[in-house]
């Protein structure tokens, strides 16, 4: 028992209670503080990390590429996807190969925000290509199995802040976000840099002050993921049937504007299965499927982290891509 | 509808906006309707349960008050307890009881093929059952007058800020605030704001972030973690459950302050306790005082022989453990707390450590004793608890995971603990309300910035909803 009894809930006297006026001052100070945080976040936004730098360059990259293609009267090819395409493709090498092999000349650009999947790509395309009417001739989409089927948004904050246009709100509310909390969160993130880029600020601060933050966090994530898989196996839960409605949406938008999509299942150390429904969808819409899952001569050593292509893999994949472009004669 | 969801704050804003315009009676009706709506947001099928508990306790309490027949009082009390505890027992403990019986019969060599029902646990049932039971017992004991207004009593049972996770209010405190007009107090807005911000910080920043680490470590297989990882996992869980539950109570109290209703303090710097008795006056105060007043003291409390005192302590804590959940780990958790209470009671008073450092040592030691009990509380089963305990004592080795966990603990909990030590030294929970407004604004800026910058990766439920 505590040695001395005190009334921990009481104020010394009722007169000590802060007045409403005083408390309003506190609230105003907090609101001003949050506004200043928002301003700082907006200033920092383009330089938080290389991904944000890339995202902030989208309008410029897309406009530049469209302008150059128009000027040179060459097909505009956009290499689209995430870090797999970013790490795996060397645009310069592709154009060098095409020149050496007397292949077709193209204008190309890479739009490859990291950690994105089909839902991000749908909104990204709508905001940066469709809304500005700067469609490429060919959209080369690199992916692996888990990027193309319908799933919950991986990074809702970034999607809302960077890929979603205001006029897409009704669409995302009705088709992709199914709870009130996500809808509000998404709207807040779209308008606030502080909210939208929060995970990056958090990562920067915590990796600065907590030793081994990234490694520890990854270990914890791995354990939780493995436990989740164990519990699915133990409970004999049926895995949900995969659907591809978002992929269909991307195809539909592109088709509407005469954009050809080349779907490229990306190489991985082990061959992975491409869902037959996705293949059927691509074929039904007369889009191209360029299978890069097993490029001749590619080995495990071509992947620097067991997932992304390293320097040697990049060369092999870029050569392969140049060959595909040459064969397709866009 | 969770306190840490946007839906709740929108709901509260609507309720509060209308509430301010209504007279006392209208406010009560509004709060009752809002409470039922709030409850049905989890599952409308639970509504008949809470309505049954409300009606039975309302009628039995009225019956007790209207009659002078002691025998009738007794029978009405039995009916009330049987219905309330029967519903609680069926929905919360039936599956556990059947499974344990089947396991026991199998151990004894009988082939037991008992089918269990898959029963959903109605959210908050343990809380409102204890709250209504305390009312009927108080009426039975003549300590409180039965209320004649059914809507008022229904609001006492279902009042939404504390309906699903407490504090477990007493009729002597909450009921008069419902039946009588509620005066506005000068400090209610500021106290409510303070409690809500602190509660959100505890839940969202401390509880959920550390819960993510605890969940990882407690879901690991034995070979995946070291003893240091396991120890860090237990520390993280200690602060997860504190942040989660104290956070909920704090928000419930803050919201009530804005409605001019006072709810009791449920947590008072529990990890600064120096002994078990001190701890139970700081942790889940509304439950521990309920168990003291309606179980421990009626059994004789400490006004009986030494053996009986120990028996009373053990029984109270075992039932306290069982209240938390239908599982052996909870019963063992309660049993260990009972044992700790008995051991500290058996120790001579001269064992007390002297001076400032003695107090610090006693606090740190007792925090570890509490962490030891949390290991059993959090573990999925006894085998896991034993495995982790063995690891802690045999395989200490720093890994990336433990360094990360410790770093996160310091980052999120150190400011909280420093603040709590300051409050402890000032002997008040409300010290921040009487400092210069600039200091309060600075503290709130810290809380708000932490809420904005460090929400958890995974949107967190409140742990105590499952109890």
Structure characterization notes:
The complex is a heterodimer of chains A (330) and B (467). Chain A has 15 helices and five strands. By secondary structure, chain A is an alpha/beta fold. Chain A has two domains: 7-47 and 183-238, no CATH class; 50-150 and 242-328, 3-Layer(aba) Sandwich (Rossmann fold), CATH 3.40.50. In chain A, strands 2-1-3-4-5 form a five-stranded parallel beta sheet. In chain A, helix 14 (276-284) links the parallel strand 4 (260-265) and strand 5. In chain A, helix 7 crosses helix 9. The N and C termini of chain A lie far apart (83 Å). By secondary structure, chain B is mainly alpha-helical. Chain B folds into two domains: 13-179, no CATH class; 189-466, no CATH class. In chain B, helix 14 (328-346) runs antiparallel to helix 15 (355-378). Chain B is globular.
Provide the low-confidence segments of chain B as ranges: none
Strand content of chain B: under 5%
Quick one: biggest sheet of chain B? none
Shape of chain B: globular
Rounded to the nearest angstrom, the distance between the terminal CA atoms of chain B is 17 Å
Low-confidence stretches of chain A: 1-6
Per CATH, the architecture of the largest domain in chain A is 3-Layer(aba) Sandwich
What would the principal axes of the Cα set say about the shape of chain A?
globular
**What is the helix content of chain B?**
over 70%
Residue-averaged pLDDT of chain B, rounded? 90
> How are helices and strands ordered from N to C of chain A?
HHEHHEHEHHHHHHHHEHEH
Could you name the CATH class of the largest domain in chain A? Alpha Beta
Number of domains of chain B: 2
Number of helical stretches of at least 4 residues of chain A: 15
Helix proportion range of chain A: 55-70%
Q: What assembly state would you assign to the polypeptide chains in this entry?
A: heterodimer
Give the overall average pLDDT of chain A.
88
């Amino acid at each position: 028992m505590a040695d001395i009894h005190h009334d921990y809930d009481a104020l010394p006297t009722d007169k000590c209670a802060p007045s409403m006026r005083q408390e309003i001052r506190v609230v105003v100070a907090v609101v001003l503080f949050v506004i200043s945080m928002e301003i700082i976040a907006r200033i920092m936004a383009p330089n938080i990390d290389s991904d944000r730098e890339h995202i902030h360059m989208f309008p410029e990259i897309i406009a530049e590429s469209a302008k150059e293609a128009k000027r040179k009267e060459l097909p505009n090819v956009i290499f689209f996807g995430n870090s797999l395409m970013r790490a795996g493709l060397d645009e310069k090498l592709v154009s060098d190969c095409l020149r050496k092999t007397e292949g077709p000349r193209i204008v190309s650009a890479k739009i490859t925000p990291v950690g994105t999947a089909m839902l991000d790509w749908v909104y990204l395309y709508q905001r940066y290509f469709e809304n500005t009417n700067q469609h490429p001739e060919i959209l080369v989409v690199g992916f692996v199995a888990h990027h193309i089927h319908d799933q919950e948004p991986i990074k809702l904050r970034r999607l809302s802040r960077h890929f979603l246009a205001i006029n897409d709100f009704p669409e995302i509310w009705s088709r992709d976000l199914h709870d009130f909390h996500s809808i509000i969160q998404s709207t807040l993130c779209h308008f606030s840099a502080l909210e939208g880029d929060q995970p990056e600020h958090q990562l920067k601060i915590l990796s600065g002050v907590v030793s081994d933050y990234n490694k520890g966090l990854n270990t914890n994530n791995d354990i939780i993921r493995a436990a989740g898989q164990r519990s699915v196996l133990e409970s004999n839960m049926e895995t949900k049937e995969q659907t591809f409605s978002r992929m269909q949406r991307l195809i539909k938008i592109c088709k509407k504007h005469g954009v050809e999509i080349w779907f490229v299942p990306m190489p991985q150390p082990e061959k992975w299965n491409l869902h037959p429904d996705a293949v059927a969808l691509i074929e039904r819409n007369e889009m191209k499927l360029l299978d890069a899952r097993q490029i001749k001569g590619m080995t495990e050593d071509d992947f620097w982290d067991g997932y992304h292509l390293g320097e040697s893999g990049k060369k092999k994949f870029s050569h392969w891509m140049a060959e595909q472009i040459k064969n397709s004669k866009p | 509808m969770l306190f840490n969801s946007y839906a709740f704050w929108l709901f509260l804003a609507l309720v509060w906006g209308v509430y301010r315009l209504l007279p006392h009676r209208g406010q009560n009706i509004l709060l009752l309707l809002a409470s039922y709506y709030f409850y049905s947001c989890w599952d409308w099928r639970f509504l008949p349960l809470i309505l049954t508990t409300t009606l039975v306790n309302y009628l039995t309490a009225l019956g007790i008050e209207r009659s002078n027949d002691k025998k009738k009082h007794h029978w009405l009390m039995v009916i009330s307890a049987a219905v309330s505890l029967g519903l609680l027992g069926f929905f919360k403990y039936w599956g556990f009881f059947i499974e344990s019986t089947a396991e026991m019969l199998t151990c004894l060599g009988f082939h037991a093929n008992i089918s269990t029902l898959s029963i959903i646990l109605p959210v908050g049932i343990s809380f409102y059952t204890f709250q209504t039971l305390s009312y009927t017992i108080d009426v039975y004991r003549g300590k409180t007058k039965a209320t004649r207004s059914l809507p008022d009593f229904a609001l006492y049972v279902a009042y939404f800020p504390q309906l699903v996770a407490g504090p477990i209010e007493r009729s002597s405190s909450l009921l008069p605030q419902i039946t009588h007009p509620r005066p506005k107090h000068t400090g209610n807005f500021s106290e409510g704001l303070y409690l809500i911000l602190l509660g959100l910080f505890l839940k969202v920043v401390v509880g959920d972030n550390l819960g993510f680490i605890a969940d990882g470590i407690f879901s690991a297989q034995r070979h995946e973690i070291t003893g240091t990882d396991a120890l860090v996992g237990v520390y993280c869980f200690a602060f997860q459950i504190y942040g989660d539950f104290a956070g909920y109570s704090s928000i419930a109290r803050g919201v009530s302050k804005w409605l001019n209703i006072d709810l009791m303090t449920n947590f008072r710097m529990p990890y600064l306790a120096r002994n078990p008795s001190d701890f139970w006056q700081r942790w889940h105060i509304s439950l521990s005082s309920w168990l003291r007043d309606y179980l421990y003291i009626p059994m004789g409390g400490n006004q009986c022989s030494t053996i009986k005192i120990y028996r009373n302590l053990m029984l109270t804590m075992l039932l306290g453990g069982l209240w938390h959940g239908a599982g052996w780990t909870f019963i063992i958790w309660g049993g260990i707390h009972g044992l700790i209470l008995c051991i500290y009671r058996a120790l001579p008073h001269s064992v007390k450590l002297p001076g400032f450092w003695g107090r610090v040592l006693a606090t740190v030691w007792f925090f570890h004793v509490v962490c030891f009990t949390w290991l059993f509380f959090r573990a999925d089963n006894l085998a896991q608890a034993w495995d982790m305990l063995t690891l802690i004592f045999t395989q200490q080795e720093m890994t990336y995971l433990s360094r990360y966990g410790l770093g996160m603990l310091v980052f999120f909990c150190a400011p909280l603990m420093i603040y709590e030590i300051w409050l402890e030294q000032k002997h008040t929970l409300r010290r921040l309300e009487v400092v210069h407004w600039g200091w309060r604004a600075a503290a709130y800026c810290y809380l708000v910035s932490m809420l904005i910058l460090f929400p958890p990766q995974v949107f967190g439920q409140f742990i105590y909803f499952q109890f």
